[in-house]
Amino acid sequence: MSILVYAEHDNGAIKGATLNTVTAARAIGGDIHVLVAGQGCQAAAEAAAKIDGVAKVLVADNAAYGHQLAENVSQLVAELGKGYSHILAPATTNGKNFLPRVAALLDVNQISEISKVISADTFERPIYAGNAIATVQSTDAIKVLTVRPTGFDAAAATGGSAAIEAVAVAKDAGVSSFVGEELAKSDRPELAGAKIVVSGGRGMGNGENFNILYSLADKLGAAVGASRAAVDAGFVPNDMQVGQTGKVVAPQLYVAVGISGAIQHLAGMKDSKVIVAINKDEEAPIFQVADYGIVGDLFTIVPELTGKI
Amino acid sequence: MKALVAVKRVVDYNVKVRVKADKTGVELANVKMALNPFDEIAVEEAVRLKEKGIVTEIIVTTVGPAVAQEQLRTALALGADRAILVQTDDEVQPLAVAKILKGIVDAEQPQLIILGKQAIDGDNNQTGQMLAALAGLPQGTFASVVKVEGGKAQVTREIDGGLQTVELSLPAVVTTDLRLNEPRYASLPNIMKAKKKPLDTKSPADYGVSALASIKTLKVDPPAERKAGIKVKTVDELVEKLKNEAKVI
Ligand SMILES: Cc1cc2nc3c(=O)[nH]c(=O)nc-3n(C[C@H](O)[C@H](O)[C@H](O)COP(=O)(O)OP(=O)(O)OC[C@H]3O[C@@H](n4cnc5c(N)ncnc54)[C@H](O)[C@@H]3O)c2cc1C
Ligand SMILES: Nc1ncnc2c1ncn2[C@@H]1O[C@H](COP(=O)(O)O)[C@@H](O)[C@H]1O
Asked: What is the pTM (predicted TM-score) of this model?
């Protein structure tokens, strides 16, 4: 049995979610090969070769894969993937974008967002916004899986010394092209993988008011997240959204500020170790999952908290 | 140009879903069902493109039981022109849905195919991508802006780091994110009119699809419950608890 893990990277470095995905692959068991597809991605391939437990790194360095266009990447992965028992990618927006295409090209179903490996063909995954956990068994010849990073510890980024092999396959479907991107820049930690997350909701009132959360976050070394309502209202960009249809986080500490606690939001944060809720409505459902709740006006509580830690 | 919109009947998003006592699935008896929220956005987007004169006809389709006609009628009331129900009582997984949709694409030749990014029951987020692969089409997933001009579609996508814009040749598959638009409510006259709009009934076999599922659900468990904790009165108390009890700061 050998397993192909698709690496999430920025051509230079490997993204954290890749390390969790390698751990999921190790739980399945077998030789683990990591595919690094991109443009000018040699440095990322070298980093992948150091990941503990990786037997081989395949590197497909080609302009066609530069922006991770799903039409191109999926053909590459489907072709290489034929020789593997399992194909895994992190359940990031990139993995979610191209991996179902790979599954379709291989004529198999994909199992989305596994949170636990039971055996080589049986996995756990949350459904209905995490209100139920399904144990599913695949009868497909090749198992195609996206991996929810919070379900698995990160593999050690060093200690391995895998061989690196270049793959010459260039697939350009020629039906899509990259126009541009607007990436949010921040000096704060990334939401995925942060030890502490401070999130704001509609109760923040506007985008400028998020500054009091940024101050708190900087004091704590935390990442900043948001509810969908805060994103929809234009307070903050979409990449900060936590929830069923946004990012799933499981930090040591999650501080929910002015967030009511809708099912869809809870789906993205209720596996956090400790949850703090700050809300003026004592009936807010967020208090049902919070370890420590404080009822009151966030505009007085948050600055006071920032001052006292 | 024709637009095809795929919709699914799911448990209403406000319902707190519970696992059945025998762990075979979730409780669906007497639970409110609705059009998947992302699919409502998909229908709305097609209707707006029709109002702009870009789309000329909107076909809405679902694969599911006879009662899923309710959701097709909702889509017709929102502005779709005709509907196709691919009727089956069996569980249909994304690959089979995508194959059936590919059959409809082959028959109807739409230039734009719009799906939700995710059905909120199975949370799979696969079907649009699979359809695009089977039909050999480009895809614009998790769309927050769609522009159709000069035989191409420009789609702005919500990605982990922010936003990305791609250009797709037509025909293309688009899957919707929440910010793409705010769906309208169906007016009473439109609900009445929708009852008279054409609705065809087909079967998966009509599209040559017989294997509907390859993934077996062995059991369904409730998630680990979190107990409600305590309410603290002051910020000092909160800081003390976080430092000395939870030891997280
Ligand atoms: C298909 C679908 C998918 C969705 N996916 C997501 C998702 O991934 N993530 C997500 O978050 N949501 C998601 N939603 C939206 C979700 O249903 C809720 O609408 C949203 O989470 C509510 O955000 P909120 O708690 O910030 O706003 P509200 O529910 O409006 O709550 C605001 C809270 O702030 C409090 N407040 C106001 N002012 C103050 C103050 N001065 N001091 C203290 N407290 C104050 C209020 O008491 C209230 O509890 C989704 C919805 C749908 C339909
Ligand atoms: N049974 C179905 N019939 C028609 N469309 C579907 C069906 N299931 C899923 N879809 C479409 O595919 C999208 C993504 O669903 P999923 O891949 O199941 O998360 C949905 O938002 C619908 O647009």
From this structure: 0.97
